[in-house]
Specification:
about 130 residues; alpha+beta; about 50% strand; globular
Length: about 130
C-alpha cells in the first residue's frame, strides 16, 4: 500500500479496540520489516552506545509523537510514539535543539511495544518539516 504511513499504522494498531496481545500479533503479521514514513513532534533525542531494542551503537535515539488515540478509554493510551535509531553521525545536540518541532521521519519497523504505545524504527532518518 503506497499510501501507508506511520500514522495509518498507529491508527490500525492502537485505535481499533484490540487488546495488547492482539496488537503485538497484528504488528508482527502486517508491519514488521516495512519501511514507512510519517510526521510528528520531536519529543527528545539523545546519543546511545547500547540500547535494549537497537543493540550496539553508537547512534542517536529520537522519540517522536506521531498519533493521539481517538478514544483513550478503548486504547488505554492517549499518545503513540515512534522511537527511532539514527546513525552515529547524527548530531544529537542539534536534534535536541529542535525539540517540539514538527519533523518528518522514516525507518524500518522493527518492534511494537503495545503497553507503552511505542513503535520502534531502525535505519532511521529525521528532518524538520519546512513550513
Amino acid at each position: 500500500d503506497p499510501v501507508l504511513s506511520l500514522q495509518k499504522a498507529a491508527r490500525d494498531l492502537f485505535d481499533t479496540g484490540r487488546n495488547r496481545y492482539e496488537t503485538g500479533r497484528r504488528f508482527d503479521s502486517e508491519y514488521r520489516g516495512l519501511s514507512l514514513s510519517g510526521h510528528g513532534l520531536l519529543r527528545r533525542a539523545a546519543p546511545f552506545s547500547n540500547d535494549r531494542v537497537f543493540g550496539r551503537g553508537p547512534g542517536t535515539l529520537a522519540e517522536v509523537e506521531i498519533h493521539r488515540t481517538a478514544d483513550p478509554a478503548i486504547a488505554g493510551l492517549t499518545t503513540i510514539f515512534v522511537s527511532i535509531a539514527l546513525p552515529g553521525e547524527v548530531d544529537a545536540r542539534a536534534l535536541r535543539e529542535m525539540t517540539g518541532a514538527r519533523v518528518e521521519v522514516r525507518g524500518t519497523l522493527t518492534r511494537c511495544d503495545a503497553f507503552s504505545g511505542t513503535i520502534f524504527l531502525s535505519d532511521g532518518l529525521i528532518e524538520p518539516v519546512s513550513n
